[in-house]
């Protein structure tokens, strides 16, 4: 008989954290698991439902990180579980590299339909975000016969060599592992709260960032005719949940078109309804030549996608392939996920995101240690600072707030040097938002007293 249980609507902390079973698990984990992971606080999960997660000692948490922006439809959404079960009973694997199966094609057809812009698309399915980026880099170089890639400071694109080389986020991600992929050049991404070029409006800062590429990179560093692609996150994720102004993506699109450069958008974190539209690029009306997806795409099953214009995805048989990519169970989960996201969750992300932003703005107005709230939909960042006057980044305070929220039953994560990220499942409601903000406020008032 399966164990029955009732999922509460609010956090319930019933042991010290970590509890006894959690402590035992963490001890064993330390013995056998790679030390390269970055666990912040000791959450040891045994089940999840919707936006709630229970640990091995029976404590319940409200999840505002969703397995790093992955569980788009919430934990174990019944429709996703049903699709997974049905597919698992049919077959688990056959490899789309060598054979054909229906839901792989159905998913590609759906991704073509929901992708930004009107150009027909072709899709390569893989297993993760980093793999999608890796393939996109190969495709861009193959298609253009050029080698240069422009990517941005604070960007994060993954952990394999190509993806690591185009990332410029944190030193530990790449320290002692060089040399990296050659041909990568970094440029500045507009960050209105801390403008590198010191411009006074977000749009002017974006103009300065565009100008840097033209007057610096293209004049002194690499000839534009040797640049295969400009690669970026339409909203920076790991780097601090930085939302660019409206002229940034169209400006890059124009620059790419002028020089025959491909525009690659990394929507691994920002895609699949998270920002209140299917893709963050939809907020800016920009069509990428290559778009990378993963994370929320299959609600937690491993799946990545390279969605490219058909006239760009021109590589021949053998140029790129994968044994597991486009696994039929993951494809089934993705089809169920996209149906739910298109149905109501995308809209919910917009509505709840606005509510979350307004409540966090109220905290920013009242607490000197909060610098700015920014975001799109349910991709929301809150900058923790020493004071509004200095704007100095408060890294340790940010980490303490995240830890104390955990102890009060709220799961959040940091990003960038000093930002708290809120990326809950897209199924959260107003009550969940209120609960999360109340817990955060209690922690803030304790820290400020
Ligand atoms: N791109 C972005 C924007 C990401 O946020 C991440 C992961 O956090 C990746 C790529 C890498 O994805 P994965 O961890 O699935 O390899």
Written description of the protein model:
- Helices cover 37% and strands 16% of the residues.
- The model has no long low-confidence stretch (mean pLDDT 97).
- Strand 1 and strand 2 form a beta hairpin.
- It has eleven helices and 15 strands.
- Helix 4 packs parallel to helix 9 and helix 9 crosses helix 11.
- The chain starts with 19 loop residues before the first helix and ends with a helix.
- It is α/β, with parallel strands linked by helices and 449 residues long.
- It has a seven-stranded mixed sheet, with helices on both faces. It has a four-stranded mixed sheet with strand order 1-2-3-13. The chain has a four-stranded antiparallel sheet with strand order 11-12-15-14.
- The protein folds into two domains: 159 residues, Aspartate Aminotransferase, domain 1; 263 residues, Aspartate Aminotransferase, domain 2 (3-Layer(aba) Sandwich).
- The site of pyridoxal-5'-phosphate (PLP) has 15 residues, from helix 5.
List the helices and strands and how they pair.
Blueprint lengths: L19 H13 L12 E5 L2 E4 L4 E4 L2 H4 L8 H13 L11 H13 L6 E6 L2 H16 L3 E5 L8 H6 L17 E4 L14 H20 L5 E6 L15 H12 L2 E5 L23 E4 L10 E6 L18 H39 L3 E7 L2 E6 L10 H13 L2 E2 L1 E3 L3 E4 L7 H19 L1
Helix pairs in contact: 3-9, 4-9, 7-8, 9-11
Short descriptors:
single chain, 449 residues, alpha/beta, Aspartate Aminotransferase, domain 1, Aspartate Aminotransferase, domain 2, 2 domains, 7-stranded mixed beta sheet, 4-stranded mixed beta sheet, 37% helix, 16% strand, binds pyridoxal-5'-phosphate
């Amino acid at each position: 008989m399966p164990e029955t249980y009732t999922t509460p609507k609010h956090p319930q902390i019933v042991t010290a954290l970590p509890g006894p079973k959690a402590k035992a698990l963490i001890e064993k984990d330390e013995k056998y698991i790679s030390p390269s992971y970055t666990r912040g606080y000791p959450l040891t999960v045994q089940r999840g439902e919707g936006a709630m997660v229970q640990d091995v000692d029976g404590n319940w948490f409200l999840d505002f990180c969703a397995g790093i922006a992955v569980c788009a439809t919430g934990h174990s959404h019944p429709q996703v579980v049903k699709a997974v079960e049905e597919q698992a009973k049919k077959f688990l694997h056959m490899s789309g590299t060598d054979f054909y199966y229906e839901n792989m094609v159905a998913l590609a057809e759906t991704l073509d339909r929901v992708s930004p812009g009107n150009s027909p698309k072709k899709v390569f399915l893989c297993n993760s975000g980093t793999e999608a980026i890796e393939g996109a880099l190969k495709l861009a170089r193959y298609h253009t016969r050029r080698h240069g890639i422009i990517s941005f400071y604070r960007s994060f694109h993954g952990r394999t060599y190509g993806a690591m080389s185009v990332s410029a986020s944190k030193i530990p991600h790449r320290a002692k592992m060089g040399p990296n992929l050659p041909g990568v050049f970094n440029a500045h991404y507009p960050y209105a709260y801390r403008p590198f070029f010191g411009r006074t409006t977000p749009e002017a800062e974006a103009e300065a960032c565009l100008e840097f590429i033209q007057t610096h990179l293209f004049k002194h560093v690499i000839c534009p005719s040797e640049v295969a692609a400009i690669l970026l996150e339409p909203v920076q994720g790991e780097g601090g949940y930085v939302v660019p102004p409206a002229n940034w993506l169209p400006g890059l699109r124009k620059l790419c078109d002028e020089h025959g450069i491909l525009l690659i958008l990394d929507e691994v974190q920002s895609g699949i309804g998270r920002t209140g539209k299917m893709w963050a690029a939809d907020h800016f009306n920009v069509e990428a030549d290559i778009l990378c997806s993963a994370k929320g795409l299959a609600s937690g099953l491993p799946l990545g996608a390279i969605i490219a214009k058909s006239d760009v995805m021109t590589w021949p048989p053998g140029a790129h392939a994968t044994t597991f990519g486009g696994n039929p169970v993951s494809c089934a989960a993705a089809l169920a996920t996209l149906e739910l996201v298109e149905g109501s969750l995308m809209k919910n992300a917009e509505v709840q995101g606005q509510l979350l932003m307004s409540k966090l703005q109220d905290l920013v107005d009242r607490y000197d240690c909060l610098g700015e709230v920014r975001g799109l939909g349910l991709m929301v960042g809150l900058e923790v600072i020493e004071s509004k006057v200095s704007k100095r980044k408060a890294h340790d305070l940010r980490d303490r707030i995240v830890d104390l929220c955990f102890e009060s039953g709220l799961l959040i994560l940091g990003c960038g040097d000093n930002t708290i990220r809120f990326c809950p499942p897209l199924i959260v409601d107003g009550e969940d938002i209120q609960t999360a903000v109340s817990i955060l406020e209690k922690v803030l008032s304790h820290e400020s007293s």
